[in-house]
Every structure is written in structure tokens, then in C-alpha cells.
Design a protein that fits this description.
Blueprint (H helix, E strand, L loop, with lengths): L40 H20 L7 E5 L4 E6 L23 E6 L5 E7 L2 H6 L1 H30 L29 E4 L10 H20 L7 E5 L1 H8 L45 E4 L2 E5 L26 E4 L2 E3 L5 E8 L3 E16 L4 E14 L6 E5 L7 H9 L10 H4 L1 H4 L2 E2 L1
Parallel strand pairs: 1-12, 5-14, 6-8
Antiparallel strand pairs: 2-3, 3-15, 4-13, 6-11, 7-8, 9-10, 11-14, 12-13
Helix pairs in contact: 1-3, 4-5
Amino acid sequence: MPQANSTGSGSLGYDALVYRDSVNDVTGQPSGPFPTGNAGANKLWLPLWSGEVINAYDQYNVFENLINTKTITSGFAYEFPITGSVALNASWDAGEELIGGDSASTTFKVALDKRPMAAHFETDNVDLLVTQWDYRSELARQAGLTLANTRDRQVCMGLVAACALGPISGDPRLTTATPAGSLTTDAFHVPGIVASDANGPSGCSEAEALNVLQEIENYLVTCQENDIAVTDVYCAVTPKVFQVIRALGIPRTSGGSIPAGSFQQYPLFGASEEVGSLGAPLAMGMNTMMDSLDYMGVKIIKTNHLPKVDHAASAIGGSKYNLNASATSYSATGVTTGYTGFGIFGVIFQKEAIAGLSLMGMKVDTVQDVRRNTQFTVASMMKGTGVIRPELCKILIGATAGNATRAVLRDHLNGNGSSGAATNNLTNGFGAEYVVTS
């Protein structure tokens, strides 16, 4: 006797059991090859949604394309090679043997983080998400944006940590002499203090924005004086600092608030021919996070992911990422070290400064929970970050007290934002990982 459908008499038909059935599709038709059936709703959900999350991640992520990023298919680490240094004999006498300099083969080792990052959610109607883009798109956008923002914050913290690290004894490029091509301690940029008040980057003035441009010039000069190649240089600043830089020269008061200069009558980044056609016409909005300005070959970009709090209390990953960027730092009970009135205006860096690792991109899983009558979905990624050339990084800060040295910056990042013992996250994290292996 043929089976009756649910609209007729007799036993229940196949379309009477549609709700969250991985065998039937959303219309109740049995799954199978065309034309006898269609794929089930749950079978459609995972590949459909995962592709949209990957697309959203690629759209919102900024910094992975600005650093040395490697994807590995297995294992947990990647080693970046370092060549030795070339020796110099300025006057080679007869009979004098040349030893060839330091030709040791060494590497910087960068490892994956111990645990993956994950964006997850729960829904009670997967069939609706499969068929309705308006419902599904927002979840995909939020998942991709959450993962991209977290990854950008980790990379930004890696850049900040690189600005605090000094040369290491095992680096074969390091030498106290100054022949061309050698790496010296002079090549490591000290922090650039662009503001001496406690207003931070949110209170950036035009004079402080000009200081940012001055520090860009100082960065380029230091690189040239120490034979460091200048390629793919970026200056990542907060949106407020970016906006003030872009508006330099626009009269804010009747008398003008910036020092007398040649661009007072023409905005510096207003695309005026009188100032070299920098920037874009002021009628053009530069209001997305992807906008940028160019100054002396350096691309100024904006980001809202520069650290500004004590991440020991607001984790963005493993302990090495959770450094202190709050206004005050304590490394021992009641003792203030580092800076006071601290705030990060920006970071200048080159592509080879730090490295990022990725283990086979993104993984998306989904499962039905019958007990909760829901569909649970998670998107996860295994990432890693390591410092390989800290001499390519320079931090731009505001502070009311504290010397412009990498050692003071290390103390600040390694402390915490409230009275108590130091976290030692920098010492046990990026600082400890920045080693050379034979």
C-alpha cells in the first residue's frame, strides 16, 4: 500500500517530520540526488555559512596582510632563517688570514598559540537561516568581524611588544662595531613621545599630530643611518589621530591653533598643489577603516585596535598578548614604574617586523542539541604571533612622566594597571620567545 502524505488519510507522510531533520530538506522532500530529492537543511547550513564567515573575516581583517604571515598545514611552529654577518678588514696585510665573519646558520622560531580563538552562537531554527539571507548574513558578519577584530588586536599587541624589545645576544647580525650592513643598538628606535599631557590620543591636538609626522621622519632617518632597508613602512594610528592629521591646516579658531607654517592657508592633506597634493579633497570623506594617507613614502592607516587598557584583566588571547597599556603601571605593590599618563598614539613598523602564523585557515563546526532544541555553531582559528625584527618598530606615545627608552616601555607593558605584583606577561611571552635557535 503506498504511503499517504500528511495532507491525506492513512499513516504519516514524509513531510510531516520536517523540523530539524537532517535527512529531509526544508520542503520535506527526501534527500538524495536530483531529481528524487534535495540536500538536507543541516547539510546545506555548514558549507553555506562557513563560506560567508570566511569572506567576512577577510573583509574586516587589516593587519595580517601588513605583516609576514605564513600558513602551515601541520606542526606548531615555523622557523625564519637569519644569515650571519659579513666581516671587514679595512687594510688586509700580506700573510693575514681572513676568518670569514660570522656565518652561523640560525633561525627565529615562531609558534602557534596554545589554544584557538572561537566565535560561536546558538539558534533555534536552522531552516530559516538557510533560506533567509537577511537572518544569516548578520550572524556571518558578526562572527567574521569578531574573529578579525581579535586577531588585529593580537597583531597590534605584538607590534607594541616589539617596540619594547632590545637586541639579543644570540643574534648574529648584532655587533658593537659599525661596518656597513651590521646591526647595532643604535638601530633600535626609542619610543617617540608626541604628547606630554594626560589627554591621550583621544585628545590629540594639531601640534601633537605634527609631532607624529616628525617621528615618522625620525624613523626614516634612523633606518638610513643604520643601513636598514626601508620598504613597506606603515604608521598605524587611532581614528582620532588620523582625523587630526588629515585636517591639519584647517582653521579651528580665528587666529589659528597651529604654529605658523607654509600650509596655514592650504590644508596639508587637502590635495592642494601648493603642498604637494597630499591626501584627498576635503569634500571626499575618509571615514572607513580602510582609508589611508601617504607621507614621505609612509602609509598612515587608522585602527581602533591599538591597546589602551590593562589586558591582564581583559584578555585578548594567551597570556603573552595580555600586556598593560593603561595610563599607569605598577610592577610592585605601591611602586609606579613605566610611564604615567600613558597612551598609545600609533606604531610605525615594516612588514618584516613581526610574523603571523595560521594553521589551515578557519574551521567551522555545527551540531544539533536535542536537549536544548537548538543548533550550535562555532568558527575557530589557530593563530600565532612572534617578533622577528624588533628594530623595525617604533611606538608613538603620550606620557606625563617617564624616559623615552625601550626599558621603561618594557616595565610599563610588564606591569599592571592597579597596585600589585607585575604580570611578567612580556618577560614570559614575546620577550622570552624572541630568541635565536641554532
